Amino acid sequence: MGAAAEMVGVTPTFLRALGAAKLIEPRRSSGGHRRYSRYQLRLAARARELVDQGTPVEAACRIIILEDQLAEALRINEARGHPAGH
Predict the structure, then answer these.
(1) How many other C-beta atoms are found inside a 10 Å radius of the C-beta of residue 26?
(2) Is the N or C terminus of the chain more exposed, i.e. has fewer CB atoms within 10 Å?
(3) Segment 53-70, tens digit of pLDDT
């Protein structure tokens, strides 16, 4: 967890807060250590950006979840031949 926090530029407590807010849920190694994917680290970095701008952690997590849902909906529409904005 310490290495992941260092990579993102946050504290382990911040990563635990993101987990409590259900933004990221790391896998556990056989030794019980948290393992974060690259995608989860990108989400954590985005959360850090929002928090640095003054957004509360819970609100930042909700914003990121909504951004992710919107991006997925846009990808689905594009795949179905419905370009964004039409």
Answers:
(1) 18
(2) C
(3) 999 999 999 999 999 999
SS (H, E, C) 14-44: HHHHHHHCCCCCCEECCCCCEECCHHHHHHH
3-state helix, strand, coil in the chain (%, to 5): 65, 5, 35
Distance CA 80, CA 17 (A): 37
Residue 65, CA atoms < 13 Å, CB-side half-sphere: 12
The contacts of residue 78 (CB under 8 Å, 6+ apart) are: 84
Interacting residues of 57 by C-beta distance below 8 A, sequence separation 6+: 14, 17, 18, 21, 47, 51
Q: What single letter denotes the amino acid at residue 16?
A: R
